[in-house]
Structure formats: structure tokens, C-alpha cells
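Internal tracking record. Fields below are filled automatically when a chain is submitted to the structure queue. Please do not edit lines marked as system-generated. If the sequence contains nonstandard residues, flag them in the REMARKS field before resubmitting.
Queue: standard
Priority: normal
Entity type: single polypeptide chain
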Amino acid sequence: MSAVGAAPGTAGGMLTEIDHVAIAVNDLEAAIAYYAETFGATVVHRERVESDGVEEALVAVADSYVQLLTPTRDDSPVARFLASRGEGLHHVGYRVADCAAALQSVKDHGGRVIDQAPRPGSRGTTVAFVHPKAAFGTLIELVQE
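SYSTEM-GENERATED OUTPUT FOLLOWS
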């Protein structure tokens, strides 16, 4: 076996890659400047997601991203996160071939979900969130490209 409990070629099962690591920040422009000046990184995608009340900037790292997130309104989940925890790691996004199937697997295994069904995400993706209480304290985003 290539990984503990996994068949060869399926080490991640439904999780095919890390899509992004999301970092909540108070000042998106300052965070972008930090990544540019410190690491020579450039923003490859920027989008305002009204439904989530956030603005994001994606910095490419190999085939994945660092997603810098800032709230656009006070009642957004990211605004509440920043108010209670401060800046830092917000969630991990995993790529999946089928967001609905991955979400159903979480439910079938007794996991708690935030989204009952997949929904549109940034970059034209389909996404769903798994509650951190179901995932050892980590907010997980399932991302289908």
C-alpha cells in the first residue's frame, strides 16, 4: 500500500490535491504586499464573493494557492473569525472530483457540514464546507474545479 490504509494510486481517496490554504487578514492590500515583497509572489486571481462577504486574492504556489481573505461586511463568517481569533489560518481547501459525492461521504460518516448541498465558489468552482467540529478543529472546504 502506498499510504496507510489506501490502495496504490488512491492515497488521498476523494481528496485529489490541496487547492488552497486560506488566511484571514484585516488588510488585504498589506497581505498582498507582504507576499510580493517577501516571497516575490504575485496575485493570479482576485475576486469579491458577495455571497460570502469576502474579497479574496489568490497567490499561486505550484499547483495550489494561498488564499488571502478579508471581509467585505461585518456579518460575514470571516469578519466573525477575525473578531474572535484574529488574523491567521482560516481553512484548508481540498480538491475533489465530485463535490456532491465528497459532501455526502462526510454526512454518511456522521460528519457535521455547513453546506447541505454544493454551491458556487470563486473561480467558477463548486464548493461545500465541512464544520470544524467534524474535522478535528479544521474548517474544510471541498473544491470541485
